[in-house]
TrEMBL record:
Residues 52-148 form the Methyltransferase type domain. GO terms for molecular function: S-adenosylmethionine-dependent methyltransferase activity. InterPro entries: Methyltransf_11, SAM-dependent_MTases_sf. Gene3D superfamilies: Vaccinia Virus protein VP39 (3.40.50.150). This is Methyltransferase type 11 domain-containing protein.
């Protein structure tokens, strides 16, 4: 006899409560390059003003970016996530601000934040991403940067979803024949092509800096591939990641800003950028356009990791010598060496010039599975 399980209607809150209850903040931080989106975040996250991670889950990027000296707040609507974060902070004697809330109705004033980060959040609203984007636009100050990513319609998704469609159609047919009750399956998420995500952002008033696809590794992982050390295929995938081929990967990534006649400068944080004088891809004042770091921001080029990928590296808990100040420092047990190919102590890392330089020139992916 054919046994058909009846579908269970689940709310987003139930889905995420069960998701986060199986994981820990520390294990999430350790897999910071699981979606290969770190170069975008590090290159464009504002070093001045307050940055919000809207839909922060277990706080992976909040703790990581706070270590870079970024003034960041995490918000999530699931109590289980906030509970796990509290546990992590108590155990590791670290502190970052978090609050509970809905990203479609934020508790921040208009024009109050310098940055808005949203990684795999806005695709979970059945009514579409407009409300969340309008809120992002409202709370960002003029020139404020939005870093928004969603899953993309990648080649692996096209394959997996068509397979699922066939399976569902057969199930539907069988249920119809045996007159089994048919329920509407619960909604989980949408997949957006980079150009679709870009359209939504433009509709909300954002000016696009970069919009592209990324993460071939995850697409192959979805199809069953396990990245391994010293594998030619893993190396090939990583090499392709730094080419336009990555556009067919698992993530749609966007960098944009809130345009206005007068805006805050990305490099000095002053309210001194006039849109008529702006020649860079993001808001930079006239003085900052002459700084050496400005060369990374004049044109918005496709982003790359700068050093070869480390697959499942062992944790290094030793002392290292900082390449910037020459002092010995203890490597962080969870944040490790921060994913750069240079040694940097936690004090030097909080210098925005140093961390911007590292983020543009020495970024190295560290690929680990979820544990
Ligand atoms: Zn400036
Ligand atoms: Zn140092």
């Amino acid at each position: 006899m054919i046994k058909i399980k009846s579908p269970v209607i689940k709310s987003q809150e139930q889905i995420w409560t069960s998701e986060w209850s199986q994981r820990s903040t520390a294990s999430e931080i350790k897999m910071w390059d699981f979606y290969l989106e770190r170069p975008w975040i590090l290159k464009y996250v504002p070093r001045y003003g307050i940055v919000l991670e809207a839909g922060c889950g277990l706080g992976r990027y909040v703790f990581y970016l706070a270590a870079l000296g970024i003034d960041i707040i995490g918000i999530d609507f699931v109590s289980e996530a906030l509970h796990k974060i509290q546990e992590y902070m108590k155990k590791n004697k670290v502190y970052s601000p978090f609050c509970q809330g809905d990203v479609r109705k934020l508790c921040f004033k208009d024009n109050s934040l310098s940055g808005y980060i949203s990684l795999g959040v806005i695709e979970h609203f059945e009514e579409g991403p407009d409300l969340a984007m309008q809120e992002a636009y409202r709370v960002l100050r003029p020139g404020g940067i939005a870093i928004i990513t969603t899953p993309s319609v990648s080649f692996s998704q096209i394959y997996l979803q068509s397979k699922l469609k066939v399976k569902k159609s057969i199930k539907y047919l069988i249920k119809k024949i045996i007159r089994y009750p048919i329920y509407k399956p619960y909604f989980f998420q949408y997949w957006y092509l980079p150009k679709t995500l870009k359209k939504y952002l433009e509709k909300s008033g954002f000016k696009i800096v970069l919009s592209q696809g990324a993460d071939l590794m995850y697409s192959f992982y979805e199809l069953g591939y396990q990245p391994a050390r010293k594998s030619w295929f893993t190396e090939l995938l990583f090499k392709l990641e730094n080419t336009p081929m990555a556009s067919i990967g698992a993530q749609a990534i966007s960098i944009s800003y809130k345009p206005a006649q007068q805006m805050y400068c990305f490099l000095c944080g002053h309210f001194n950028v006039h849109i008529k004088e702006l020649t860079a891809s993001i808001p930079l004042c006239q003085d900052c356009q002459k700084k050496p770091l400005a060369k990374h921001y004049i044109k918005a080029n496709r982003l790359k990791f700068q050093s070869s990928m480390l697959i499942h590296p062992e944790f290094n808990n030793d002392q290292e010598t900082c390449d910037y100040c020459g002092k010995e420092y203890a490597v962080s047990k969870i944040l490790e060496y921060y994913g750069f190919s240079k040694n940097v102590c936690s004090i030097c890392l909080k210098n925005s010039e140093i961390n911007l330089n590292l983020s543009n020139t020495y970024i190295q992916p560290v690929w680990r599975l979820r544990t």
